[in-house]
C-alpha cells in the first residue's frame, strides 16, 4: 500500500473515539478505515446463531436481507471468523481456504458481484454466542492486502477495542439511567459532597413537596435536622470512599426525620450505596453514590379515624391507637402519643385484631384497605403500617 501519514492515522483514531461517545458516529469511523486502507468497502458485522447486522461504509440492504443472512450463516466462513482470537488481525479468506471458499455460493452469489475480493478481518468482541467482526475489503482490480496493511491495522485495533469498551459502559449507564427514571421510588446520583448528578422523576417530586424532609441547596441534597444531615453526609462519604484505587465504602440506611416528634410529616428511608467510580469510563475522576428513597409513612386523612371506627366497630381509644399505628409509629410511640401505657395499648391492640379479624399490624393495614375499597371510599395511597 502507499505510505500512510501519521496525520491520516490520527484522524481515523479520533473518529474511532468519537464513535465511543456517540454510537451514530461509527459509520464515519468505518468509512475512515476504508479510505485509510484504500479499500472498496468496510464494515463491522455482528452475527450470531440466527441473526446478522452490520454498520457498513457502503450500506447494502440486500446483503443484510434474510437471504443474505442465511447465505452467510450457512457458510463455513462464519465458523472460521468466530474462531479468530479476539484482537487478532488476519486475511480473509485465509490462503489455505481460498480455493474452497471461492467455489461456494456465498462467494459466487453474494460477495463476488459486490467485488469483495480481498479482506482484512479482526474479531473485536464475542458475547452470548455473538461475534463482532471488523472487515475491510478491496476489489479484484486492487492490490491485495500486504504485511504493511496487517501491521497498520494491528496498531489501530487496540483503539477500536478500547472505544468499544467505553461505548458499552456508557451504554450500560444510559440504560441504567433510563430504568431509574421509571422506578416508583426516588433515586439520586450524588458525589461525595451530596451534589446531585442525576435524579429520577420520583426524586424530583419528593424535593418539591412542602412537607418533605429533603431539599435541594446549592445543587446538593440536604435533610432537615442537624443530626440527620451529619449522618447522611457520613453515609455518602463512606459510599464514595476510595482506598488504594478501589471503592471500599458500603454506605448504609437512614430514616428521616429521625425526630419522633415529627411523626405527622412525611417519613422517608434513605438507602445509600456505592455506584461508580467515573474514572472507569474515561470521564471525570469523581466517585459517585446512589441514594434510593422510599416513603414509609405519610399523613393519613383526618377522616381515617372516624372511618375505621364505623368500619370495624372500634371504640374511640381503639381507633386512635389503630390510626397511630397505621401512620408508621411503633406500639411504644403510639401509646406515648395517646398517653396510655404500653400494657394498656397491648390490650387495645388485641381487641383491634379481634374486631378486624387480623393477627398483625400489617394484616390490619391490608384488611383496612380492602374493606375501604369495597366501600368505595378513598384512603391515602401511602397508608402503611409501621
Oligomer: single chain
**Count of DSSP H/I helices:** 14
Q: Output the CATH class name of the largest domain.
A: Alpha Beta
Tally the structural domains. Answer: 3
Contiguous low-pLDDT stretches (5 residues minimum) are 278-285, 359-363, 365-386
The name of the CATH topology of the largest domain is Beta-Lactamase
Strands ordered across the widest β-sheet: 2-1-5-4-3
Helix content: 40-55%
Main β sheet profile: 5 strands, antiparallel
User: What is the arithmetic mean of pLDDT?
Assistant: 78
Shape descriptor reads elongated
Cα radius of gyration in angstroms:
32 Å
Describe this structure in words.
The protein has 386 residues and is an alpha+beta fold. It folds into three domains: 6-176, Beta-Lactamase; 182-297, Beta-Lactamase; 304-375, Orthogonal Bundle (Arc Repressor Mutant, subunit A), CATH 1.10.10.10. Helices cover 44% and strands 22% of the residues. The protein has 14 helices and 14 strands. It has helices at 6-21, 26-36, 66-73, 76-82, 98-101, 105-111, 147-181, 201-208, 226-239, 304-312, 316-326, 331-338, 342-356, 361-375; strands at residues 41-47, 52-56, 89-92, 118-127, 130-138, 186-191, 196-199, 214-217, 220-223, 242-243, 246-247, 252-256, 267-277, 287-297. The strands form four sheets. The chain has a five-stranded antiparallel β-sheet, with helices on both faces. A hairpin with a 2-residue loop joins β4 (118-127) and β5 (130-138). α1 runs antiparallel to α2, α11 packs across α12 (331-338) and α12 (331-338) packs across α13. The radius of gyration is 32 Å and the shape is elongated. The model is unreliable at 278-285, 359-363 and 365-386 (pLDDT under 50).
Amino acid at each position: 500500500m502507499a505510505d500512510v501519514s501519521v496525520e491520516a492515522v490520527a484522524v481515523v483514531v479520533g473518529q474511532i473515539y468519537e464513535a465511543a461517545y456517540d454510537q451514530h458516529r461509527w459509520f464515519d469511523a468505518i468509512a475512515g478505515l476504508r479510505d485509510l486502507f484504500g479499500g472498496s468497502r468496510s464494515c463491522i458485522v455482528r452475527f450470531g446463531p440466527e441473526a446478522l447486522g452490520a454498520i457498513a461504509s457502503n450500506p447494502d440492504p440486500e446483503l443484510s436481507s434474510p437471504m443474505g443472512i442465511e447465505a452467510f450463516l450457512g457458510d463455513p466462513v462464519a465458523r472460521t471468523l468466530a474462531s479468530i482470537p479476539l484482537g487478532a488481525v488476519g486475511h480473509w479468506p485465509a490462503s489455505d481456504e481460498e480455493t474452497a471458499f471461492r467455489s461456494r455460493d456465498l462467494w459466487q452469489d453474494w460477495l463476488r458481484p459486490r467485488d469483495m475480493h480481498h479482506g482484512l478481518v479482526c474479531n473485536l468482541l464475542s458475547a452470548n454466542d455473538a461475534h463482532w467482526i471488523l472487515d475491510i475489503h478491496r476489489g479484484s482490480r486492487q492490490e491485495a492486502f500486504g504485511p504493511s496493511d496487517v501491521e497498520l491495522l494491528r496498531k489501530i485495533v487496540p483503539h477500536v477495542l478500547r472505544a468499544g469498551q467505553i461505548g458499552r459502559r456508557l451504554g450500560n449507564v444510559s440504560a441504567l439511567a433510563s430504568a431509574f427514571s421509571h422506578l416508583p421510588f426516588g433515586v439520586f446520583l450524588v458525589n461525595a459532597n451530596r451534589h446531585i448528578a442525576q435524579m429520577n422523576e420520583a426524586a424530583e417530586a419528593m424535593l418539591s413537596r412542602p412537607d418533605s424532609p429533603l431539599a435541594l441547596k446549592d445543587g446538593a441534597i440536604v435533610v432537615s435536622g442537624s443530626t440527620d444531615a451529619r449522618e447522611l453526609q457520613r453515609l455518602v462519604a463512606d459510599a464514595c470512599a476510595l482506598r488504594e484505587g478501589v471503592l471500599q465504602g458500603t454506605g448504609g440506611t437512614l430514616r428521616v426525620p429521625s425526630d419522633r416528634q415529627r411523626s405527622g410529616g412525611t417519613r422517608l428511608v434513605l438507602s445509600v450505596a456505592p455506584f461508580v467510580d467515573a474514572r472507569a469510563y474515561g470521564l471525570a475522576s469523581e466517585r459517585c453514590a446512589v441514594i434510593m428513597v422510599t416513603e414509609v409513612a405519610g399523613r393519613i386523612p383526618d377522616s381515617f379515624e372516624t372511618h375505621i371506627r364505623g368500619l370495624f366497630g372500634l371504640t374511640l381509644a381503639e381507633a386512635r391507637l389503630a390510626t397511630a399505628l397505621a401512620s408508621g409509629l411503633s406500639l411504644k410511640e403510639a401509646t406515648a402519643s395517646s398517653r396510655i401505657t404500653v400494657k394498656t395499648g397491648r390490650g387495645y391492640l388485641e381487641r383491634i385484631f379481634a374486631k378486624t379479624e387480623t393477627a398483625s399490624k400489617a394484616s390490619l393495614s391490608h384488611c383496612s384497605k380492602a374493606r375501604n375499597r369495597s366501600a368505595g371510599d378513598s384512603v391515602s395511597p401511602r397508608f402503611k403500617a409501621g
